[in-house]
Amino acid sequence: MRNRLLTGFVSAVCLAALAHAQTDEVRVPSDAVAGSAASIATTGSGSATLYLVGPADSSKRDVKLGEDIKLQPQELGTAGRYVAIVCAGSCQSAAFFVNPAKPVNLSFLVHPSRAPVGQSDIVSGVALPFDEFGNLVVAPVKLDFQLAEGGKTVMTHAASTENGAAWFRANSGKSAGPLQVQATMNDVTARRVVQQVASDPCSLHIKGQRSAKRIVVETEPVRDCAGNPVPDGTVVTFTGKDGKDTYTVDAPIKQGVARAQMIVAGPVVVSAASGVVMGNELRMGAQ
Amino acid sequence: MISRRNLKFDRKEKLATAVLFALLLPGYLLSADSALQVALDASKATPRAVEPLTERSIFRDYKFAWTNVAQAMETNSTVPLNGLLAGTANSTFNGAIQSQQRSGLSSRYSNQNHKVEVVFYSPEGDVMELHDTAEYDLEIFDGSKSIHQEHVALHYVVLMSPGADRWVIRQLQAVPHF
Asked: Which terminus of chain B is less hemmed in, N or C, by CB atoms within 10 Å?
């Protein structure tokens, strides 16, 4: 009988202790920011286990119910949804969001790396703001795009991010050379360079000389319609016709000029083409 | 009689082929959440329209990524994530799995349903932003003990970029609302 009473008493004490170490409510932060401290409030008393499950980190620790549970800044570095689970006998949970901190980095993608001059909408850029923890800042952020060549600004475009991204398109300039492209957000600037190169040849003029068995033809300096020298390596096709045969030579431009030799003894008509541009016809008589 | 034998042989052959195929499949496909649903709408993408082939790739790779994320989070293995995530998304999920290993936790994502919309596709096609309204059952375990179960409805902002042979997730960030 005595043993039974003792057993009943111990059981009652245990149950009471268990009931005591329970929380009815877990209160989580409503406006947590990445990298900032926050706290979780619980009701009840006694000890419990807190599980904090976030996008990039999960932790487990012993806590005292009824006391504020401090969350360190490094526990909340990743923006997203966190679940706080407090277990003392049974488990109670609550979820909260951590928002990105202020933007301090710009991811700035600019294309292309080389662009022919005088082309419409050929340069484009996308800027994405991130906080110091690599979280995408989805709230609207104002920024400015600026294009400059030769130290002179040729385009500015004020934009605001939408869903975390802002973008622009622009024409290339008229002169070959570097095009400085920059995106500025508050005091953060990201810079990229697009190399503007000459466009397709605008016209071709050829001249030639005859020796005993061959002719040597060459172009005058090849330029695009804005007067920029066409890049070396651009291929010019020379075609010679002597009435019976057709001779074709592909020659790359070197230092602005393309040059070819043809072994032809009789009279010949030579023409040149590059891309969609045809040059003049050159008639050369027999030796 | 001959036809019956052939029929039997066909059945055995099919069974053997199926077993062989299942054995050859990687582990992540075997334990994939078969209930995972993805619906992708690319019709509102700006400023560039999404090409049909790209849309198919995004659908395939995004679904595959979630299948593998779920498997990785449940088994606490980073192996299923290889090649599917890059940048911040990669470090986020690797960190999540490593911390789960440290604290003895694991998470089960089941009955996933993703309604995905492409909201931004860059002019040169090098980055795409998706909005995913996802629903799934989340269960968190401490060891083998279930400590949390809930049906979650979440919004994800997703950045994807083209990799060598697939689209990879660079950012997967839950937000309270779009």
From this structure: N
Specify whether B57 is located in the same domain as B111. yes
H or E element that contains A198: none
What CA–CA distances, in Å, run from B167 to A73, A96, A109, A114, B59?
33, 30, 17, 25, 10
Q: Do A60 and B142 touch (CB under 8 A)?
A: yes
Domain residues of chain A, as ranges? 20-99, 105-197, 206-284
A161-B52-B169 Cα angle (round to 5):
50
> What pLDDT band is residue B35 in, cutting at 50, 70 and 90?
confident
Cα separation, A126 vs A103, in Å, equals 16
Residue A121 phi/psi, 5° resolution?
Answer: 50, 35
Q: How far is A58 from chain B (nearest CA, A)?
A: 5
User: What is the CATH number for B72?
Assistant: 3.10.450.50
Amino acid at B60: R
In this structure, the answer to whether residues B160 and B104 fall within a common structural domain is yes
Residue of B159, B172, B175 to mutate for A, most A C-beta atoms under 10 A:
B175
Other beta carbons within 10 Å of A255: 7
CA dist., res. B45 & res. B12, Å (int): 49
Per-residue pLDDT tens over the stretch B108-123: 999 999 999 999 999 9
Residue B10 sits in the same domain as residue B95? no
Choosing among A26, A51, A53, which should be mutated to test the B contact, i.e. which has the most B CBs within 10 A? A53
B13 and B39 part of one domain: no
Could you tell me if B159 and B125 are in contact, meaning their C-beta atoms sit under 8 angstroms apart?
A: no
Residue A164 has its nearest CB partner, among B92, B147, B157, at B157
ipTM above 0.85, yes or no: no
pLDDT digits (tens, 9 = 90+) for A149-207: 988 999 999 999 999 999 999 999 989 999 999 999 998 999 999 999 999 899 999 99
Residue range(s) defining the domain that contains residue B4:
1-30
Distance of CA B40 to the CA centre of its chain: 13
DSSP A207: E
Residue range A84-119, pLDDT digits in tens: 999 998 999 999 999 999 999 999 999 999 999 999
Task: Return the closest-CA partner of residue B105 out of A76, A79, A61.
Answer: A61
- C-alpha distances (whole Å) from A243 to each of A206, A246, A260, A278, B155 are 20, 8, 20, 20, 74
Q: What is the DSSP letter of A95?
A: E
For residue B166 the two structure tokens come to 């697939």
Phi and psi for A140 in degrees, rounded to 5? -55, 135
Of 2.60.40.10, 2.40.128.110, 2.160.20.10, 2.30.110.20, which CATH number belongs to A206-284? 2.60.40.10
- Determine the Cα angle at A248 with ends A243 and A250, to 5°: 160
